[in-house]
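Reopening this one. Same input as before:
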Amino acid sequence: MPHLSIKHFPRAFTEAERSDAVAELTSTIVRVFGVEHGAVSITVEPVEPSRWTEEVHAPEIEAKPHLLWKHPAYSQPIPNEGTA
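Same output, byte for byte:
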């Protein structure tokens, strides 16, 4: 505990990008939640833009606004990859 789950439009990541993201996210979670590095886990899941509303927006954003620490700034329909 804690576990961070990130969903995103598909794209390739270099090992350097993955390493940097893991280090930065883990460092922030450790600091904010007051846990050890070994307590943090992270998943990164690509979701096709055509499935975003069904798989992410409706069940995780619209259905659980009380759990969001940051709300998205995009509007419906979901913008194409590379826009926000």
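So the earlier flakiness isn't reproducible anymore. For the record, The two ends are 31 Å apart (CA to CA).
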